Fold this sequence. Notes:
Elements: H1 2-27, H2 34-41, H3 45-51, H4 55-78, H5 84-101, H6 103-109, H7 119-144, H8 150-169, H9 173-181, H10 186-204
Helix pairs in contact: 1-2, 1-4, 1-6, 2-3, 4-5, 4-7, 5-7, 5-8, 5-10, 7-8, 8-10
Amino acid sequence: MATPKVHAIRTTRARILDAAARLFATKGFHLTSIDEIAQEAGVAKGSVYYHFPGKDQLLVSVIQEGVRLIQETVEERQEGVTDPLERLLIVLDTTFDVIMEYQEIARFALLGGCEGVARDVKTQIDQAREAFEADIEARVREIVGDRWDSTMMARVLFGALEGAVRAVSLRPRAARIAARRSPLSKEYQEAKRILRAVCAKTLAG
């Protein structure tokens, strides 16, 4: 009897996270209510509070889940790839894909849009960002060794990633949504092409 109960709890939590991610991405964090998240997830409002103390902590969990999704997708795409540069490009490509899918959430995780959240929540968001930057730095170190300052190089590449996201995210909302729904669009592919070129050129120097 215990195993089905644990499974049910995990399934409910996952449904709440999925619903929150969709609503945060489409409506924005501040305009989304717990009631709407509960309705979208098909659960009682009390179920949301059972798993998460409040909307701020739910945002942190959504971001952490996004980082986990990026990591899992990177591992899948890197399978059989041995070239360090190509492995790093896969990281940047994958991160860009996930961020473009959830642009509103990315404002908090990547673009510093943490207005109106509690200080401890902002700290947790910053920690998630720092952990991701550390992962990029480790991958850069694989390529450049002692030839360059890998910390500075990672920050440059992370800045390029931010720039690629901003180039699309700062467009009018309708255009952002269209780009998110059309990953083969000219703008989407051009941003990724430039990002890859900056990465390759920087590391080749």
